[in-house]
Request: fold
Amino acid sequence: MPREARKKSKTGIYHIIWRGANRQEIFHDNEDWTKFLEILKKYKKNCELIIYAWCLMSNHVHLLIKEGNENISATMKRIGVSYVGYYNWKYRTTGHLFQDRFKSEGIENRKYFLTVVRYIHQNPVKAGMVNQPAEWRWSSYRGY
Reply:
């Protein structure tokens, strides 16, 4: 059975969630976290994305972004292929790193937008990794 088509956001803003396959870790050290952010920055510029919020967890990623000069699926594919290529080279592995395709939810109003920003920044707190969002180095919270 074919998978359901991704729902297009009227605003072009999406909450993106990417999980490691089988809940595996996708970031093992500072170099991995930094490399993902470098790749994200590269495609932010190249694809003219607007990134409102982000949080990298050990086995998943949250992004709140507005698509730029191409559809969100094409941009996320570029980001994913780049990071997986780096990961597989570094750890001498092959195959899939992420579970399925990324999940996305369209953000259609300001109230929900603010709810998602809070949710993304609270993620490390709810996971018990830190007590306050500002303690988590790998999110955009400190930028706020």
The chain has a mean pLDDT of 94. Residues 52 and 64 are 5 Å apart (CA to CA). The chain has three helices and four strands.
